[in-house]
Amino acid sequence: MNLKTFVKRFTVGLGLSAALLAGASAETLKIGVIASLTGPGAPWGLATQYGAKILASEVNAKGGLDVGGKKYQVEVIAYDDQYKAADAVAAYNRLVRQDGVKYVILMSSPSTLALKQSIEDDKVVAFTSAITPKAIDANTKYMFRLYSTPIDYVPSFVTWLKNNVKGKRVVILNPNDETGWDLTQLSETLYKENGFTVAGTDLYERTQKDFQPLITKVLSMKPDLIELSAASPPTAGLIVRQAREMGYKGVFAKNSGPSPNEIVAASGKEAAEGMINLLYVDPTNSGFKRLAADYKKFVGQEPHEQVVTYYDAANVLLRAIQIAGDVKDTSKVAASFAKALPMKSVLGEDLTLSGKKNGDLNQQILTVDYVGVIKNGRPVVVGKVK
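The line above is the sequence of ABC transporter substrate-binding protein; the predicted structure tokens follow.
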């Protein structure tokens, strides 16, 4: 070995040793994620997981999170609940009892409701994207909503449809679970208030793949618009494709759980043309583009736009921990949530404290959302809703 090679290897080894020593000197702050990492809900679940992981990597690259003068490396531990409450309970027990996690991010309403009491009993601080009003009540101290929910944005979304869609006869389709029930009830009320005729509503199982019998029933109702609010991305795309193949010429809308890119992938570009989606981001936003590029490095594919909301929520959580000045005392962290806001989203919009419409004041992050229309396979922002 020549001198040049020896010096190079010695220098690299010295740098690695220093990095290892720095990591060893920092304590670890663990954040658990319980989400649907496989199956139809995977686009949402991976956004949950990697929104938090991307933020953790950024914090760790700067030496860790400073809490009370002590540095913490942020570790994200994710488990798959496959959109099933029973699997969520198993994942939660593993995170809390075995992994020692005190902070959890939850994706779905079924999982949130299954864990609601355990979170309060264990004093685990949890952020949820559950839309059900049942997730938070007067006795809830440790659960927080991480973004605006349908009661915040669906009214404006349906009003936009009223002013921009010609036909006023709608059929509402949703999955047969807590999320679907809530959104069916809310959507039906709002469509009627805005002058639409709700020709029918129907439910399907999230595992369902053949929608021809259901679509046959829907087409017999002669809708101008089919609302797919809580459908998972691949399922929504499948319904769109099968309905187009069966002759449906009307409009599709999705007033919740936005996922236009995944819908196009499942339906085909031509079938999805003109579909109207609620959007959590403006795809042209520079902050989203940066986050999307980081996501692609981690996962190797384009992200679901909801990655923004989970990145922002994790950021709010870390700020609340810093304000509390104590990683271990979750009561202090929960009490510091209100002090963490307002703050800026990665998109540059203001994240504020809200929850009045859900009855959970001071336990919800209020975000800004958009109306998008799929044009040539891509969502184009045509309006903003708050």
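Note on the example: The radius of gyration is 22 Å. The first helix runs from residue 3 to 25.
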